Automatic annotation (TrEMBL):
Protein family (similarity comment): Belongs to the short-chain dehydrogenases/reductases (SDR) family.
InterPro entries: NAD(P)-bd_dom_sf, SDR_fam
Protein name: SDR family NAD(P)-dependent oxidoreductase
Oxidoreductase as UniProt keyword: yes
The entry's keywords: Oxidoreductase
Entry superkingdom: Bacteria
Organism (species): Jeongeupia naejangsanensis
Taxon lineage: Bacteria, Pseudomonadati, Pseudomonadota, Betaproteobacteria, Neisseriales
Coiled coil: none
Transmembrane helix keyword on record: no
PANTHER family, alphabetized: DEHYDROGENASE/REDUCTASE SDR FAMILY MEMBER 7B (PTHR44196), SHORT CHAIN DEHYDROGENASE (PTHR44196:SF4)
C-alpha cells in the first residue's frame, strides 16, 4: 500500500493549522473535519445545511477539539461578494489559512443525456468546479502567506471512466482534474503551496447511497478508511507534491 494510504499522523502535524472544509455537513467532508480537529486543527465548516454543520460542530467540541467555525453557504448560488466576505471572515477570526479540502459534491441523479437539463449541468459545474476554483482564488492571499499550505479536491471515479447516464456530473468532475493541473503549474512560484485531486473510489457515503441505491453498504469500505489519506495530503507530509491525480482504490 502507498505510504499516504496508511499514513500515521505525527502528534503535532496539524497543531495551530486552520483548514477550510467544504461539504462539511456529511460524508467525506464531515469525517475529514472531525479527524482534522482530533489532530489539533481549527476547522472552518462550510456547507449548505446549517443543521448538519451544527451537528459536526457539536461533535468536534464534545470531543475536545479546537472550537471550529460554521459557515452556511450554498456553492450552487454563491457569487463573488460571498467569497470576498468569506476571506474577510477567515482573516479577521483566524488570521491565517493553511489548507482547503473541497469535499462538496454536486450531483442530481443518473439519467440519459436526452433527459438532462441545462440547469442541472450548470448547477453541477458550479458546485464541482466553478465554486471551488473561485473560493480557492479568493483565498489565495491567505494561502500564500502560510508557511505550508495544501488544497485537496475530492474527485469521483466516473470522471475518468465516462459511462452512460453519468452525463453532466462526469463532465464536471473531469473538469476538476484540468483545474488542479493548471493551478499546480501556475503555482510553481509558491513552493509552500500545493493542490491535488483525490479519487476515493467506491466507499460507503451519502453520495454512493444516492447514486447506487441498491448496493449493500457492507460491501464497501467505510469513509473512515479514507481519513489517513486526507490527512497526508492536507498536512506537511505532502509538501512539494502538487498537480497529482490520486487513486485511493486502484
Amino acid at each position: 500500500m502507498s505510504e499516504w494510504k496508511d499514513y500515521q499522523v505525527p502528534a503535532d502535524a496539524f497543531t495551530g493549522r486552520v483548514i477550510l472544509v467544504t461539504g462539511a455537513g456529511q460524508g467525506v467532508g464531515a469525517a475529514a473535519a472531525r479527524a482534522l480537529a482530533r489532530q489539533g486543527a481549527t476547522v472552518i465548516l462550510l456547507g449548505r445545511s446549517e443543521k448538519k454543520l451544527t451537528r459536526v460542530y457539536d461533535d468536534i467540541v464534545a470531543a475536545g477539539g479546537p472550537e471550529p467555525a460554521a459557515v452556511p453557504m450554498d456553492l450552487a448560488k454563491i457569487g463573488e461578494s460571498e467569497i470576498a466576505q468569506l476571506g474577510v471572515l477567515i482573516n479577521k477570526e483566524f488570521g491565517r489559512l493553511d489548507g482547503i479540502l473541497h469535499a462538496a459534491n454536486g450531483f442530481t441523479f443518473l439519467s440519459p443525456l436526452s433527459n438532462q437539463k441545462l440547469d442541472e449541468w450548470v448547477e453541477q459545474f458550479r458546485v464541482n468546479v466553478a465554486a471551488p476554483f473561485a473560493i480557492t482564488r479568493g483565498l489565495m492571499p491567505l494561502l500564500t502567506q502560510a508557511p505550508d499550505a495544501a488544497v485537496l479536491v475530492i474527485g469521483e471515479e466516473h470522471a475518468l471512466d465516462a459511462k452512460a447516464y453519468w452525463g453532466g456530473f462526469s463532465v464536471s468532475k473531469i473538469g476538476q482534474q484540468n483545474w488542479v493541473r493548471i493551478a499546480a503549474d501556475e503555482w510553481e512560484a509558491y513552493p509552500q503551496l500545493r493542490i491535488n485531486w483525490l479519487i476515493p473510489g467506491a466507499i460507503h457515503s451519502p453520495f454512493r447511497t444516492k447514486s447506487h441505491p441498491g448496493e449493500s453498504p457492507e460491501t464497501l469500505p467505510a469513509i473512515e478508511a479514507l481519513v489517513p489519506s486526507l490527512l497526508y495530503w492536507l498536512g506537511p507530509a505532502s509538501h512539494g507534491q502538487s498537480g497529482q491525480t490520486l487513486m485511493f482504490k486502484n
